[in-house]
Amino acid sequence: MWIHRRRPLDPVGGKETPEKVFLSRRRLLQAAGLGSGLIAASAAAGYFAWRRWRGSDAAVMAAGRVDESMPAMLAQAPRDKRFRYGRPETPEPAAARYTNFYEFSVFKWTWKYVGSFRPRPWQLTIGGLCRQPMRLDIDELLHRFGRHLIERQYRHRCVETWAMCVPWIGIPLAEVVRAADPLPQATHVRFQTFYRPKQAPGFLKWPDFPWPYTEGLTLAEATNPLPLLAVGMYGHALLKQHGAPVRLVVPWKYGYKSIKSIQRIDFLPHQPATFWNTAAPSMYPFESNVDPNVPRPWPQHTEHVLGSGTRYATELYNGYGQYVSHLYRKR
Ligand code: MTE
User: How confident is the model at residue 1 (pLDDT cuts 50, 70, 90)?
Assistant: First the structure.
């Protein structure tokens, strides 16, 4: 009897792939290979374009550096040991890359647009209802108030729910207010920044905003020990995107109260109009203390700290209640 024994490499009878199917499967595999190659190539191209657009840390810092170096006294300002973040410090490039400065852009990467901005020379005028009005350039400001320079590690909380931990160097605002000697009728302080459309593209790009940027505090808030007229951070002069050459830092209020690049400070007998309170009064009340229980209009319970990848619980007055809560009692 003839017995067919299948040798190991013989095709299995009737189960071999028909040639047509075999070839079309091959084309499919080739197409799939080509497709995933293209996807990988465009992902890589996208990644490198994003890296270029994002900028290196060195580029972000260099873009904002002001030509004239500030006196060494900034680097030597003593640290006020009463203040600690209670969280890791924000790496400087993370803070410098992600900033709010609408005069330059309504997007965060304002460092790309500050090239034409000239924060030197710079006059700061202090006037309104006070006995000792002043007009000082930044060197005169440092000369006059330099003995009060201090470094403070403050938490900063933006109403957009991002936050940062930054070592500011500045003069306590209360010292400047005291020197200006406000009249008894003065109840509020108004701060105003610059209007220079040739140096900052935001003025003409977004003309509907109530330029120039203005902010305000009550006189009691302005004479509290916490607010700083900051001229530096991380041991050196402020970068342009952070508000060179001089800005306000009010750590218990949402970040928009901390007005940058200040040119005028005036003592007034009434509450002043402010940039954000004029643009959207229900979202940005004059007082604007950090409060996790009041939505604005989005929830404010937690905050993302720049450069940390971590969310933290937001605290009433941003954690500075022991210094400021008495200002708001009995209401
Ligand atoms: N000051 C001016 N002149 N223009 C601005 O757009 N933005 C405010 C505040 N000061 C702003 C400003 C807002 S919304 C915040 S959160 C802080 O600056 C941000 O400070 P930073 O960008 O240095 O982190």
Answer: very low
Domain with 155 in it: what CATH number? 3.90.420.10
CA of 16 to the centre of ligand 1 (A): 71
Percent of the chain with pLDDT over 90: 80
Beta bridge partners of 230: 170, 247
For residue 326, is it within any domain? no
Classify residue 207: in a domain, yes or no: yes
Decide if 149 is inside a domain.
yes
Query: Mean pLDDT, to the nearest integer, of 268-288?
Result: 97
* The token pair that represents 196 in the structure block: 């220079």
* Model confidence pLDDT, tens digit, residues 128-172: 999 999 999 999 999 999 999 999 999 999 999 999 999 999 999
**Domains contained in the chain, number:** 1
Q: Whose CA is nearest to atom 16 of ligand 1?
A: 255
Domain-located, residue 168: yes
Whether the CB of 97 sits within 6 Å of ligand 1: no
* Bond prior to 212 in cis (omega within 30° of 0): yes
CA angle 132, 135, 136 (to 5 degrees): 115
Question: Is 274 touching ligand 1 by the criterion CB < 6 Å?
Answer: no
